[in-house]
TrEMBL record:
Protein's name according to its UniProt entry: MmcQ/YjbR family DNA-binding protein
Domain of life: Bacteria
Database matches in Pfam families: YjbR (PF04237)
Coiled coil location: none
Length: 118
């Protein structure tokens, strides 16, 4: 799994993202005002987690794997929460974060996408 610095560096590399720190020091990344990925300490065991929006298919499969859970407060919107126990490498993390970014971009209005240039 990516550490916080790696996560932030990658998210900042995506076009037109914004970043806020909220909810008890969670690093929240958005496109067009909509969240696509979060780095935080949201789990009950006080460990780092990455939460992200995923496709319907990924949401059906990922939580069946070790170290991946439906994201607290966001599962109804098809978000998962990743912990180190998942054993994901950097490339896999980045691929899913990129997919989350694309999913959220696709849900923006045409006008918003045009204004952002995405």
């Amino acid at each position: 799994m990516l550490n916080r610095d790696q996560f932030e560096k990658f998210c900042f590399s995506l076009p037109k993202v914004t970043h806020v720190v909220q909810w008890g020091n969670a690093s929240v990344f958005k496109i067009g005002g909509k969240i696509f990925a979060i780095y935080s300490h949201w789990d009950d065991e006080d460990r780092d987690t990455i939460s992200f929006k995923c496709s319907n298919e990924s949401f059906a499969i990922l939580p069946t794997q070790e170290g991946i859970f439906p994201a607290k407060y966001l599962a109804r919107a098809k978000w998962v929460q990743l912990t180190d126990e998942a054993g994901w490498d950097e490339e896999t993390c980045k691929a899913y974060i990129s997919q989350a970014y694309e999913i959220i971009c696709s849900k923006l209005t045409k006008k918003a996408r045009a204004e952002l240039g995405v």
